Amino acid sequence: MLERHTPLSGVFGIENATADRHALQQAVDRIVAIIQNDPHKERTDAIITRWLKRHLQWLGAGVNLNRLNSLVEDKDMLAEKLESWAKRERQEGRQEGRQEGRQEGRQEGRQETARNLISRTEMDDQMIAEISGLPREVIAALRAEAQR
C-alpha cells in the first residue's frame, strides 16, 4: 500500500510509535517534514503541536513542554525533552530492576533458611514459617522437595 504523507498519517505515526522513544523521535521528524510541505503550515503546525503536547502529557512523559509553540521551530528542544524522558525512564527501569533483584534475593535467602531448618532440625512447618517469614504452604513444598 502506498504510504500517505498527510498530517493525519503523521499523527497516526506518533500514536503508533509511543512505546519506543527512538521511533517516537522518527515519527516527530516525519510529521515536521509533512508540516513543512503543507500549504497551511502555520495552522497545521499549531494544531499538531497542541495535540502532541497533550498526547505526551497523556503518556505521562513528565516533560515540561510549556515553551513548545511550534514543532517546526522547536524541533530540537522537543528532541532534547524526548531524550531526557528516555534517560529518566532507563534510570527508573534500572532502579526497578535493582529493587526486584533485592526482593528476589531476600526471597531466595528465606527459602535457603527454610531448607536449612528443614534438613537440620526437627521443627514443624509452622515454626519454620514463622522464622523464615514464608507461608506454610511454601514450607510444605520445600519439605516435599527435600524428601525427594
Provide a brief overview of the structure:
By secondary structure, the chain is mainly alpha-helical. It is built from six helices and no strands.
Outline the secondary-structure elements:
Blueprint: H1 7-16, H2 21-36, H3 41-59, H4 75-120, H5 125-132, H6 136-147
Helix pairs in contact: 1-2, 1-3, 2-4, 4-5, 4-6, 5-6
Question: How would you portray this structure in words?
Answer:
- With 148 residues, the chain is mostly helical.
- The protein contains six helices and no strands.
- It has helices spanning 7-16, 21-36, 41-59, 75-120, 125-132, 136-147.
- The longest helix has 46 residues, at 75-120.
- Residues 86-113 have a biased composition (Basic and acidic residues).
- Residues 86-122 are annotated as: Disordered.
**Uncertain segments:** none
Percent of residues in beta strands? under 5%
Separate helix tally? 6
Outline? rod-shaped
Average pLDDT metric:
84
Radius of gyration: 27 Å
What is the H-and-E element order? HHHHHH
**Span between N and C termini?**
61 Å
Count of strand segments: 0
**How would you sum up the major sheet?**
none
| Helix fraction by DSSP (H/I, runs of at least 4) | over 70%
Sheet/helix structural class: mainly alpha
Biased composition (Basic and acidic residues): 86-113
Region (Disordered): 86-122
